[in-house]
Amino acid sequence: MTTDNPVVGLINPGAMGTPIGCAALASGARVCWVSMDRSPESTTRAQSSGFEGVATEDELVARCELIISVCPPHAAVEVARRIAALEFKGLYVDANAISPETSRDIGALVESGGARFVDGSIIGGPPVERGTTRLYLSGPAAAKAQQYFAKGLFDVVVVDDIIGSASALKMAYAAWTKGSDALLLNIRALAVARGVEAALLAEWRQSMPGLAERSQAAVEGSVPKAWRFIGEMQQIADTLAATNLPDGFHRGAEAVYDRLSGYKNQTDLDMTEVLTALARPSTGQTGH
Amino acid sequence: MTTDNPVVGLINPGAMGTPIGCAALASGARVCWVSMDRSPESTTRAQSSGFEGVATEDELVARCELIISVCPPHAAVEVARRIAALEFKGLYVDANAISPETSRDIGALVESGGARFVDGSIIGGPPVERGTTRLYLSGPAAAKAQQYFAKGLFDVVVVDDIIGSASALKMAYAAWTKGSDALLLNIRALAVARGVEAALLAEWRQSMPGLAERSQAAVEGSVPKAWRFIGEMQQIADTLAATNLPDGFHRGAEAVYDRLSGYKNQTDLDMTEVLTALARPSTGQTGH
After folding, report:
1. Domain that holds residue A120
2. CA A174/CA A179 separation, integer angstroms
3. ipTM field
4. Chain B residue whose CA is closest to A204
5. How far B190 CA lies from chain A's nearest CA (Å)?
6. pLDDT for res A286
7. Is there a domain that residue B2 lies in?
């Protein structure tokens, strides 16, 4: 490793941030992260991936020519605000599930600190092989940012040169995947509460093959992550509202995931219990 | 045909009412309908099906031992109110897409006039062969009502003896079919408005095979019927709210179909025009 390698700053080495950092490594960069006050899981992941810990965001800003933010949507603006306050002058990539409007706000923030901004988003799970997951980038500097991740496990796709396009694409995509999961959970909870679940499943088996299994998969796949989806559903609803389209679907999806947020990271969920809890409104208190 | 045949009253001989009447004929009944002030389409359908026209609802009530209501959801209560006011004493089946609460209200209305009430709902299109479409019935008199339609093209299924169960099943079923169509239309309209439709379709083709085709089918299948779906989405949203579940999805779906109601019965829709119109809010004025 020579000092000629570009240095990429990673916020944060979580489940998706770690493979993004690995893509930067594979593409020839060194990867730094702020190691202070981080969870043992993040520390282990970062160290075993070969990322270099630095003590503070000040140091991160001083050392890196590109910083990429991968965090829950509700934290994206605050992360950008801190980096902007440190007057980062490099390339700032926000890869979070946020509305185009929030992305533009973040762009204005980091550019006021002297950075160049790239709008980004990720579609697909943490990749273990190439071809499963896309890192979308948009804005005038998207092609420049693309080079930092091009040789990793992500397909890095430049959408266009408009800030907001990569985020709009993510919003539209997740509007279906996470929105339709919430819709199915809500419907099956309705059938349970009204005593017609068996009749609905029989009708689905006859005329909508696969839907019963999909609703089961929604419980297993989306309920443990519900706490993370709340902010994303808000961003999607805001995007729809700003586009003059009905936003009720995703306000509803936000409410569904909010009620299920107590099941954070739980496995072996009992479907009937989860669906019964869903019809009992509260905020983050439906789990156990 | 002898006077020993039971007489079934049909409200109305529309696209779905007509095969229901035919099922009653096939099961050995005579079928009456009120022919005054009806459209040429309904008149032709009813006459060619062998239904007997009567002049007034008074006469219908006097002659029939069972009356079945098949009409748009927003008209269901008014139909029941008229029949109850005429003190119909037979079996009254409401087969409309209404909430369990609306069904119970209709039951109370017709029973106050002296009738016995059966909650019903239809899932599937107008049948041309057996096995495609179910007539669901619930309530204490459901098994009795079942006999009147048992030999037609419908599978006639008794859900249970609770008024509201057949309606709840329909609400849960249509919450997905028509709700997910509205969701897809809304999402594709978002992608068009934000200039990322091509990128979304490319991503869908890669990771959500079939979804692009499904959104196309939603335009062709649901937009011409949007005017009919508005009331049904209201009933579904009301059902969810009465069950203590988030109702935003179907308030959103109602808004989507409301904006598209101007395309009533139109074919050869231009998808881009429809989706662009969807992002332009108005009430029933988005068509042409």
Report:
1. 7-162
2. 7
3. 0.94
4. B173
5. 7
6. 38
7. no
